Amino acid sequence: MTQRPGRRLGAWCAGLLLAGVSVVAGCRAADTDGITPVPQLLAFLPWLLAPAGFALLCALLARWWTGLVWAVAVLGLLAWYLEPYGRTGEPGGAQLAAFRVLTSNVEFGRGTPALAAILRERRPDVVFVEECESGCRGLLDREFSGVYPHRRSVDADGSHGSVILSRFPLTPAAGVRATMGMPGAVADVRGHAVRLQLAHPMPPLADQVGLWRRELGRLRAFAAAGGDTPTVLAGDFNASQDHAAFRHILDTGLTDAARLAGHDRTPSWPARTAGVIGAQIDHVLVTADFTASGARFLRVSGSDHRALVVDLTLHERS
After folding, report:
1. 171 with 185: CB under 8 angstroms?
2. Using CA atoms, how far apart are residues 129 and 302, in angstroms rounded to an integer?
3. Which residues pair with 279 in a beta bridge?
4. Among candidate residues 242, 160, 259, the one with its CA nearest the CA of residue 201
5. Which of 30, 99, 113, 229 is the most buried (most CB within 10 A)?
């Protein structure tokens, strides 16, 4: 019996959608980021439920039972990966120090005035600022040099400049080599050494996925070399928990502070659509010495990223 044209079209639509979504979901299951366009699509993995659900409907209307089973399997796999990645646990030791951390990509400095207002309101103790060019550094110097007397920066224009501001004394550290500035330091947080490292690897554009992967790999190497020193690794990672290269950083023992504070899937980019659709690519990662609370993703006018502010508590190792 000849299949009706409408059913044939529905089956074709379902097949094409499921083929595309299956490639992305398969890479997630295989713990690889694949090649373009897979890394770009992985950032939006939760929203692939929509085309997979539409494919299920198309298969149902077309009475394509193989496609129906396929769609249910893909939807189940995607739902499985909505769960936050990695393990968490509460430190057993006594509380040693509490402080507030903020990270913000100000998009070529354009979001600096809005960031200044957020700093006055939220009063973080340590601030990581990505894409902080000369105008950004000048404004922060003029208005906050007394509040944040300690700083480490990579002084460059465009997206290459970055700065760490701190109320706590900082000892210079080498930072991580990258195309865009990633300064580092060791902070004296009320008598306790805490490694600070700003993250800003290149984004996974079509022609630089390899570079993106290598720079995330250098951040992983930094995290793995920490020994027993408490560490805060924060910034714009240009990667989400659905990217294998980012998960490998977490596998060194770091945990996403936003997850600890109940915001494991809150989007931070792009800011204009983050309330509807987006990806969480801005992170504050911490070692098991910390607990986290009060995480907030804040709109920064002029920037395409939301800022992330979170309260951290350092605990004694048990």
Report:
1. yes
2. 14
3. 269
4. 160
5. 99
SS3 12: helix
Contact residues for 209 (Cβ-Cβ < 8 A; gap 6+): 33, 35, 36, 39
Distance CA 26, CA 167 (A): 45
What tokens were used for 47?
A: 């929203």
Distance, in Å, from the CA atom of 188 to the CA atom of 171, rounded to the nearest integer, reads 8
**Each residue's pLDDT tens digit, 150-193:** 999 999 999 999 999 999 999 999 999 999 999 999 999 999 99
Q: Tell me: the pLDDT tens digits for 40-68? A: 999 999 999 999 999 999 999 999 999 99
What are the residues whose beta carbons fall under 8 Å from the beta carbon of 69, sequence distance 6 or more?
none
| Cβ contacts of 136 within 8 Å, gap of 6 or more | 106, 109, 112, 129, 161, 163
Identify which of 162, 157, 60, 169 has the alpha carbon closest to the alpha carbon of residue 125: 169
> What are the C-alpha distances in Å from 116 to residues 70, 84, 281, 300, 311?
51, 32, 22, 10, 19
Task: Say which DSSP state 179 is in.
Answer: S
